[in-house]
Write a structure and sequence with these properties.
Layout: H1 6-11, H2 14-29, H3 38-44, E1 53-57, H4 65-68, E2 76-80, H5 88-100, E3 105-111, H6 115-121, H7 129-134, H8 137-142, H9 155-176, H10 178-185, E4 190-196, E5 203-211
Parallel strand pairs: 1-2, 1-3, 3-4
Antiparallel strand pairs: 4-5
Helix pairs in contact: 9-10
């Protein structure tokens, strides 16, 4: 598998970046990962990096973005935090990844049976974790379909909250970063949310959260998201 360089990165469109990730996940699920010489990639990237995507995911040990999308060294920026939440430092990291380093796609990736989401559902308070979980609480309150047993013991409730959390954070990124908003508006980058099933390894992308302005969607405008 060829290591990304500046020219290869420049040739990848936001939509192509998504296709690469989908293909990589399919390889992962079918256990047909590409052969890579990682030491060779270390040497190839010693003078620079040109990742094509930036993936915000949870710290869960089962959700390594490089593994579940079958990517090598220098291919993606991996931003990891419990509950795949968004804060100022993460936004700044994404702005660097896209505006400075040339990444073409942002993915907000949740996963099933998320411990952080379960903690938010149960309104856990524990040290600094309290502040982190408070960023997931809006998704808990936004879940309206379940009236009884709105706790971590209800797997349907947990998964509903996880999906809402992903969708909210896609919008949070657009709303809170003028730099990323403008790059999406100009068709320089795209953004999408998705969910990783830890039982099957499969990633499902939420098409309604896919914001890419290109030949397939020339009329897209970030302004439309405000209504």
């Amino acid at each position: 598998m060829k290591t990304l360089n500046k020219e290869l990165q420049a040739s990848i469109t936001p939509r192509k970046a998504l296709e690469i990730l989908k293909a990589g996940n399919k390889r992962f699920v079918t256990n047909l990962q590409e052969h890579r010489n990682l030491l060779e990639q270390v040497n190839d990237t010693r003078d620079g990096q040109w990742p094509f995507a930036t993936i915000l995911s949870c710290i869960d040990s089962r959700t390594s973005a490089e593994l579940i999308f079958d990517q090598g060294l220098g291919d993606i920026f991996s931003v990891r935090i419990a509950g795949n939440i968004v804060n100022t430092d993460i936004l700044g990291s994404m702005e660097f990844a896209c505006k400075v380093a040339g990444s073409k796609l942002i993915v907000v990736l949740g996963h099933t049976k998320c411990g952080a989401v379960k903690g938010a559902c149960d309104h856990v308070e524990m040290g600094n974790l309290t502040e982190l979980l408070s960023k997931i609480q809006p998704a808990v309150y936004a879940e309206k379909s379940i009236q009884d047993n709105r706790t971590a013991s209800n797997p349907t409730f947990v998964e509903n909250v996880s999906e809402i959390n992903v969708r909210r954070n896609v919008n949070n990124i657009i709303e809170r970063s003028f730099i990323l908003e403008q790059m999406i508006e100009n068709g320089e980058i795209g953004i999408v949310g998705g969910m990783h099933n830890i039982e099957t390894g499969e990633v499902t992308f939420y098409e309604e959260t896919l914001y890419i302005k290109d030949e397939e969607n020339p009329g897209f405008s970030v302004a439309k998201l405000r209504h």
